[in-house]
Specification:
The protein has 152 residues and is an alpha+beta fold. The protein is built from 3 helices and 5 strands; from the N terminus they run H-E-E-H-E-H-E-E. Strand 3, helix 3 and strand 4 form a beta-alpha-beta unit.
């Protein structure tokens, strides 16, 4: 089954790739590797869920925010290489806007990781870091960046 078919089966659609808000590009390909800029859980209306995970936002809510961020990253992958069937996720860095005592960062970033595996199968499995941040742009709850390998 293709990645596009898996998305349909899951009832998910890819959003538009966000336009960079500063001096950078959404992705950069070097050889067979594509480096995706960090994205957050941008809603269709252009806003972001905000707040501190562990205070204003629950782990379950933040998991969904990471999943939404993953959809945006899949859209960028598709735009970069033309088909999700050509990509293999190599490395993911997940950043969580959390209170200092929060310790469930991996549970939050699983929202994105679980999505990648559901859509890409074995090529969605990846190395990963999940870390806490004192703040993120736009006060958003999560930001995730990804490195992918392109297959012919």
């Amino acid at each position: 089954m293709s990645a596009e078919d898996r998305l349909k089966e899951l009832g998910l659609t890819l959003p538009d790739v966000p336009t960079p808000v500063a001096t950078y590009v959404s992705f950069k390909q070097v050889g067979d590797m594509v480096y995706l800029s960090g994205q957050g859980p941008k809603r269709a209306d252009g806003t972001y869920p905000t707040g501190k995970v562990g205070a204003d936002v629950t782990v379950e809510q933040a998991y969904e925010h990471a999943k939404q961020t993953g959809l945006g990253l899949l859209a960028a992958m598709k735009k970069a290489v033309g088909s999700l069937d050509k990509v293999e996720v190599v490395k993911l860095l997940g950043m969580v806007n959390a209170v200092p005592e929060f310790s469930d960062h991996p549970k939050v970033i699983n929202g994105c990781s679980d999505l990648f595996v559901a859509v890409l199968g074995d090529r969605g499995c990846h190395a990963r870091s999940a870390v806490g941040m004192g703040s993120l742009p736009n006060r958003m709850t999560v930001e995730i960046e990804v490195i992918v390998k392109v297959h012919p």
